[in-house]
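Title: [Solved] Protein NLP6-like 3D structure

Original question kept below for reference.
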Amino acid sequence: MSPDVSRYSANDYPQHGLASAAGFGNYLAVPVFEPLNNQCIGVLEIIGDKGSFSQDLVQMVYEMLNKVDLRSSNMYGHPDEKDFKGLARAPKEIEEQLSFICRTHQLPLAQTWLPILDGSSIKRFMTTKEQFCICTSAGYEFRAACDMFHLGKSQGVVSKAFLTRSSCFCSDITQLSMTEYPLAHVAHRVGLHSSFAICLQSSYTGDYVYLL
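Solution (posted by the thread starter after getting help):
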């Protein structure tokens, strides 16, 4: 997904020149699977004017596929409540601290990511349903994109903070490539640049890790 494919390189998106000339920019591609054998039978590509596709539109695409006995991967969503079973204290304190920091310093957005594991290996990172604070309209739009897009195991400052179990800072995420950070184009569109991530391990939850 991207709000502006004209910012892709020719290697990332060979048709970006034609899309720009036609005035297109908004881009969404989702894999289509057969429900029984889980085989990917194609990709549904949707292109529109520059902007951002809404969650309602993406949800409608999923529902239309379901009506014809097809499905796609869930492009957005949050961890199931069972992921927080027994962890109520830590997320509550994280939410309180994020709200305090975000409002005190008038930051556009502060939010929490969780590593989603497949056994012992990292599968992806996704935002939590709560544990966030938004102070500006740019923060709202960027948060919506984060909800719709899971980061890969080596993408963005969030993954680097997790891999080093420390912190990571980037002064201008809009300069990162699509491969390095798929949300860079959204950040450019809404005027956000700096990103700081820190990896925390809760003393209440053993080895459970949160990325802020």
